[in-house]
Amino acid sequence: MENSIQFARRIATIQPSFIREILKAADNDSVISFAGGLPNAEYFPDQALAELASNIMTERPQDVLQYGQTEGEIELRQHISDQYRLRHQIDVPVENILITNGSQQAFDLIGKVLLDEGDRVIIESPGYLGAIQSLMIYQPQFLPVAIEQNGLNLDAFETALSANPKLVYSVPNFQNPTGFSYDAETRETMASQIRNRPCLIIEDDPYGDIRFEGQPAPSFYHYLPEQTLLLGSFSKIIAPGLRVGWMVAPPAIMQKLIIAKQAADLHTSRLSQHLILAFLRDDRFEPHLQRLCNAYDQRCQLMGDKLDELFGSDVRRSRPQGGMFMWLEFAKQFDTMELFREASELGVVFVPGQPFYTDQDSNHCARLNFSCSSLNQIDQGLALLHQAYQKTT
Amino acid sequence: MENSIQFARRIATIQPSFIREILKAADNDSVISFAGGLPNAEYFPDQALAELASNIMTERPQDVLQYGQTEGEIELRQHISDQYRLRHQIDVPVENILITNGSQQAFDLIGKVLLDEGDRVIIESPGYLGAIQSLMIYQPQFLPVAIEQNGLNLDAFETALSANPKLVYSVPNFQNPTGFSYDAETRETMASQIRNRPCLIIEDDPYGDIRFEGQPAPSFYHYLPEQTLLLGSFSKIIAPGLRVGWMVAPPAIMQKLIIAKQAADLHTSRLSQHLILAFLRDDRFEPHLQRLCNAYDQRCQLMGDKLDELFGSDVRRSRPQGGMFMWLEFAKQFDTMELFREASELGVVFVPGQPFYTDQDSNHCARLNFSCSSLNQIDQGLALLHQAYQKTT
């Protein structure tokens, strides 16, 4: 009987994520949501994609419909390699690139290939839940290290490294949930701390191309190519529904990742891969990306200005130079879960800070997404949030 | 350093599959390949799909481009549920259907959710390697049970059940590699043997709709809905490159499968899902399926007739009523790996029997795929195979 079936230990105690529940609550057109992590659908390049989808299916159906290589479409991998050279001045051989179903699949493959129960993994605190929950299935021990305005706290990182972690998970550009970015000095120091240890750094970079201010710092891959698992995604700059991302890994690890990917789903949708590739090669791609960055920049500016105006010194907020998220720390020590409940009754939602921590109570924080609301919604939503704040505190 | 990184135990000793190596060898236009498991690209409905892809992207870009539900697109799940009722007279609630990246992903999710190291899994012998290799990552103990013309050997199955397996893996229609189908009596007996044990049966049915002879027997789900994990795929009847399959599971298990799927890749490509759905609803789908069945029927017939003519009593072969594979047992006890080497020099390849067994030497067998060659290639390829046979024995 179904009831007497024992689940595997790795999954027996895992519950659906709290954030997933919040997102369900927010799936309601009358609610203004700063809760999600969605790109703004208004900026999807749908006309270009419609035209390109039709072309691909007509001109090269065999490249889309038959079984493909586990590693992914060679032309797409080549394009990614070329972009690393052109945009980031790093040399990433095509053979080291594996196409995945979004970055999310990279977390699962990394866990599967590298983590035994009890292995240690350094994570950012607060950190990105999607990665943490995916790795959690492989039952590691997480070592949270505080993330600050310029990256991980380096003393805490050194201490955590002395516990011999196998992996370090980081989102160095426009981090989720804080919007913080690691500066070059922090990256270089971390790289030198990790170098020659039996430890890999996962550099998760879904937001790097959505920069609207400042200059990019070098990738961890620049400092430490043999110990970096570099993750990229087209979800934020093109469209998440197509589920295409990639990872870069050193050859010995790539060999195992390919075995794991083959066991997991053989390969990623070739239609999705070719559609992404066609758009990347299209003249419309660069203007699209520029338009997207401008739109998010406007929203981020407005959200920041409005928060400063409404909350003044009651709130300390991050100042993202790109990405999709802003992080709030309220001066008062109160539970933002209370604020969430009050706010959702007024018609605005966000994610309270607590779920982003695995080890401590940090109740007075909140993550606000600015990418998928209109300017009007940001204006109205923050006014409602302020009303809720006044009621709660 | 990369070299000192320890891989997880589950993957440390797994090597790339032998069949994958064979398929690479066969990826050469001058070789006639009976080795693959590919559908015939000539019968891909590419024109219909090109037209439908463009329509979908134009008419409902939001349903394709934004993040979607982990469970899959509700309309596709509803369609699958409807088809089970109409075609198979079984009642499969929509909530019990999870869309996966081909059936391959179902194996991985099942392993992840149900298997602890050392758990026992009954498999068919010879059996489908893709499933076995995917489950192997979760380190179960496999209990092979001989598959015969009408399904598993029931005595051996009873004995294997006494070892308390958690899962039984079966391909009851047009099995891979044998082409055998379970008859209704075998299914019913197996269901009664499993009933009320803490054991689930994986009913993997990628080929069921490619029937060109005989009547279908009831699904295991018909006898044992609460203990059946029923797997389906659009790879064989529409196109594998889109990577869309599904699984049916009882609610308590579905809840864990959704958590695992979310951790694995959030959801399957929505473009792939909507394109499949549009074609399933299109007037061109039924004629396409009929045409495909006729084409495979012709090939299967020709392969059988030609084998009988060339090899006579030197070979005993299966008589598939559908699917894509034919199984050969040579009367002489010789190693078909030798035959493979000789044959590939002459320009024809197949898969020797050995890799389909996990526990025994059965060297005198071979799997021949009939779906993806032309009639001419079957004719020529078997003549070459016979030449190689005469040289080898």
Can you tell me about this structure?
Two copies of one chain form a homodimer. Helices cover 44% and strands 15% of the residues of chain A. Chain A is α/β, with parallel strands linked by helices. Chain A is built from 15 helices and 14 strands. Chain A is globular, with a radius of gyration of 21 Å. The longest helix of chain A is centred in the last third of the chain and has 27 residues, at 285-311. The mean pLDDT of chain A is 94. In chain A, α6 packs across α11 (251-265). In chain A, β3 (120-125), α7 (129-136) and β4 form a beta-alpha-beta unit. In chain A, the strands form three sheets. Chain A has an eight-stranded mixed beta sheet with strand order 2-9-8-7-6-3-4-5, sandwiched between helices. The first copy, chain A, folds into two domains: 2-45 and 287-392, Aspartate Aminotransferase, domain 1, CATH 3.90.1150; 59-281, Aspartate Aminotransferase, domain 2, CATH 3.40.640.10. At the A-B interface, α1, α3, α4, α6 and α7 of A face α1, α3, α4, α6 and α7 of B.
